[in-house]
Each structure stands twice: as structure tokens, then as C-alpha cells.
Amino acid sequence: MSPVRDDAVPVDGHDAVAAAMRAVDRRGFLPRAQRASAAFDQPLPIGHGQTCSQPSTVAAMLRMLRVPRGAAVLDVGAGSGWTTALLAHLVGPEGEVLGVERIADIAAWGAANVARAGMPWARLVPAAPGVLGSPRPGGWSRVLVSASARSLPQELVDQVAPRGRMVIPVGHLMIVLDRDADGTVRTTQEGTYSFVPLVED
């Protein structure tokens, strides 16, 4: 694999995702043994059979999500906390980011990584037993899911606010879901990707 370059995905000079990925160093969200590989465009193991997704995939998902400043964002399958910190950079201090991770050891490590990133409007917590995502009054304006669901989970669909958007892999398809102001839900497919499975039971 080649190292990631700023032009790995076509961007313009004002691309907020490219700026976030320059600002939030992936090395700080990897086990020590993997840090030398941080600049390479490949998934890297973080323990318990989980990975830190490859940067080009993360960048593509964040662009699909179209995160505005000040948004309230839910990061499902937050892992090491890298995507949580990237989302925090995108929303800025007027926003809110909550990462949830089902594996307790990874959640504790990811929470420490996010805290060290110095963006107190973002935090990472262990997933509540038997709960997918984190229900919030009024919903989340953006939901990022970094694990593959067997089918589109209604529990997460219900957490997307009116005028909100979710990006989620379903099987090997990347799905972008939009909820209109009247509650109508629309989905589009945006290519094929491989992810660890989302535990939904």
C-alpha cells in the first residue's frame, strides 16, 4: 500500500474533510505496534478482531455524510476514537459528537484517545447493553456507522433527526439515508465496501 496523500481523493482547497484528516493524526488512535503504518491507506488492527478503517474509506464516508458545523453527530462503532475526533473537528466547538463502542476494552481506550485530542465537545462511551446507537430526543442530525449491518437497522433509522442523514454499510453496500422534514426516509447506494459486522442483537 502507498502512503495516503492529500490528493488520494479529489478535493478542492477548501475541503473540510481533507483539513480534518490533516489535523487529526491517525497515529494517536492506533496501538503502538501499528503507529508506523498510520500513513498507509489500509485498515489496521486495534485488537478484539476490530480495525481502524483505511483513511480513503473514512474520507469517503465523511464526505457522504456532509457534516455541517454545529451538528449533533452519533458515531456508531467508534473503535479507537479516530472517526469521533474527525467528526469533532468537522462540527467544531458549537457541535456535539458522541461515539459508542460495544467492546468495553476498546471503548475505554478510545475514550482516552478522544479526550487526549482536546475537543471536549466529543466523547466516546461504551454502548448500552441491548441498545444500538444512542437514542436522543429529537434525533441526531448526522449518524455515521462504521460496521456492516445485515439489513438497514430500524433502531438507527429512528435516531436520524428530520433533515438528518446517516451513512451506513449494509452488507457490502454503502447506504446514504436522508430523512426529510416531514419524516420521509430516502436511501441511495454509494458503492461497495468491506467492514467488520455490526452486532445488532
From TrEMBL:
Subcellular location: Cytoplasm
Keyword Cell division: no
Superkingdom classification of source: Bacteria
Record-linked Gene3D superfamilies: Vaccinia Virus protein VP39
Main location: cytoplasm
EC numbers: 2.1.1.77
UniProt enzyme class: transferase
One GO BP: methylation
Family as reported in the entry's similarity comment: Belongs to the methyltransferase superfamily. L-isoaspartyl/D-aspartyl protein methyltransferase family.
Pfam families listed in its UniProt record: PCMT (PF01135)
Keyword Oxidoreductase: no
Any GO molecular function: protein-L-isoaspartate (D-aspartate) O-methyltransferase activity
SUPFAM superfamilies for the chain: S-adenosyl-L-methionine-dependent methyltransferases
Keyword annotations: Cytoplasm, Methyltransferase, S-adenosyl-L-methionine, Transferase
Lineage: Bacteria, Bacillati, Actinomycetota, Actinomycetes, Micrococcales
GO-annotated cellular components: cytoplasm
Protein name (record): Protein-L-isoaspartate O-methyltransferase
